[in-house]
Amino acid sequence: MNIVMIASECAPVAKVGGLGDVIYGLSRELALRGNTVEVILPKYDCMQHNHIQDLTISFQDLWVPWNNGAIRCTVWSGEVLGLRCHFIESHSQEHFFNRGGFYGYPDEAMRFAFFSKASLEFLLKTEKRPDIIHCHDWQAALVPVLLYEVYQQAMPHQRVCYTIHNFRHQGIVGADILTATGLNRPEYYVQPEKLRDDFNPHALNLMKGAIVYSNFITTVSPQHAWEVRNTEQSYGLGNTLHAHQNKFSGVLNGLDYEVWNPNIDPLIPAHYSVDNLQPKYENKRILREQLLLRKDFKPIIAYVGRLDAQKGVHLIRHGLFYALWNNAQFVLLGSSPERGINDYFWHLKHYLNDNPDCHLEIGFNEELAHLIYAGADMLIVPSIYEPCGLTQMIGLRYGTVPIVRPVGGLADTVFDRDNSDKPFHERNGYIFQQDNYAGLESAMSRAIGLWHDYPDDFHKLIDNGMRADHSWNISGQHYLNIYEYIKYK
Hints:
By secondary structure, the chain is α/β, with parallel strands linked by helices. The chain has 2 domains: 2-254 and 473-487, Rossmann fold (3-Layer(aba) Sandwich); 280-470, 3-Layer(aba) Sandwich (Rossmann fold), CATH 3.40.50. Helix content is 37%, strand content 19%. It has 17 helices and 17 strands. The protein has helices spanning 18-32, 108-125, 142-149, 176-181, 186-189, 206-213, 222-230, 238-243, 280-291, 313-325, 339-351, 366-375, 391-397, 408-413, 437-453, 455-467, 472-487; strands spanning 2-6, 36-42, 52-66, 69-80, 83-90, 132-136, 159-164, 172-173, 204-205, 216-219, 248-250, 300-304, 329-334, 358-362, 378-381, 401-404, 430-431. Strands 3-4-5-2-1-6-7-10-11 form a 9-stranded mixed β-sheet, sandwiched between helices. A 6-stranded parallel β-sheet has the order 14-13-12-15-16-17, with helices on both faces. The longest helix has 18 residues, at 108-125. The radius of gyration is 24 Å and the shape is elongated. It starts with a strand and ends with a helix.
C-alpha cells in the first residue's frame, strides 16, 4: 500500500511533543510491513538538519495557488532514519516557516493552511497518487476538505484517514482562509454540517471540517475515543463526532521499542531485560549517586513530564510529600509552560534542597529521563485527562510500576493489581479513580506497602508490565485494517 503522512512534526527532525514521535513510529512500523510510506512536512528553519541524510531539491518550482495569486515553493527530500521525507519551503514574504520556532505565531492558521494546500499541490504536480493520505491534528485538517472540494477531479481515488491527537487545539479561523486557499464560497462552508464552529456562527473550525470530510477519523486510544464522545473532553466537537461515529474509533499509540528498550538503551549505564532484571538496580544506585539521594532501603517514586493542570500538578506535588512521609524517595523531572507553576516548583526545589530523599530537576534532560525510567521503582501519572500517554508505557517497558488515573490511554494500558477484572498476569500497576489526595494516597500506599512487605509480588508486577507489548506492532495493524476498509469505499 502507498501511504503519505501529512503532519507538522516528525521526530527527530521536527519534534515539539508526542506528535512527532507518533508520526515517525507509525510510519516506520508501516514501512517495516512492506508498505511505501512518505512524510510531508514544512521545511522549518529550526529543524534538526543533522538527522536528515541526502537532503536534496526534488521539486524546484512548485507554484501553490494562494490568495488569488501563487507562491513559489521548493521541495526538499531526504531520509530521516530510513524514512523518506519531503520538506516544503515557501518563498513568500510572510516567511511561513522561517520563524526560528515551530509554533506560537499570530498567523498560525494561515501558515498551516498554506502547508496543507502546498502538500496537495506537491502530490498533484509530482503525480503521486497514494492509496491513503493520513493527516494529523488541526495543522493538516484542511487537507481532506481541499482534497474533496478542489482536487477531487485530479485525485479521485485517494482516501483520507485523519487522526486527532489533541482536541484542545482545533483551528478556529475566519472566512479569509477560504479566500486564501481557493475554497471561496463562505455561504457554502459556513454551514453547521460543514465547517461552521458550533460556538461561533461566524467562525470556521478546521478540525470539524476534517471530521466531516475524512473517510475515517481516529484518536489516540480507545478510552479517549469514548471520552470525547461522551464527556466535555471533545471541547465542543461531541455532536460532530456523534454524527460521524460510524467512521470514528480510537487506536492506541505505540512506543518505539528501538528507542525505549532497557536491553540496548545507550543512555542508561546498565542494560537489563525481563529475564535479567538485576542490572536495573545498578541504574537505581547510579541514579541515587547522580542526584545525591541517600542509599537506603526505600523505593524511588518518579514523575517525568510536563507540569500543568492537565497532568494533575496539584497531585504531583502531593505525591511528592506523601512519598517522603511514607518511607519512599521521590524524583521529579519536568517543567511547565506556565511561569507561575514553574516558579512554584523552583521554590519547592530550593525548599527541599537538603532533603536526602528528594530531587527536583526543573527542565528536561533526555539522558536523565532514561536513567529515571531505568532506576526508579514506581512512576506516578495522576493526569486529569490524558488522550494516550507514553510515560506509563515507558515505565512498563522499563520495569517501573505505574500509579495512574484511568483516563484515556492510561485506562487502556494500566490494570490495577488488586481491583482489575483482568487475569493476574495482565495486572501491572495501581489505579485511583478520583482526582483528589485521598485517591492518590490509596494507590501509593498499596504500591509502597507491596514493595516493602511483599517483594516477590512486586517483582511479579514488574514482570507483567515488561512482558506486555506496547510497541507499534498491534497499532500498526489496526491502522492497516482501517486503510483497507476505506480504500474500497
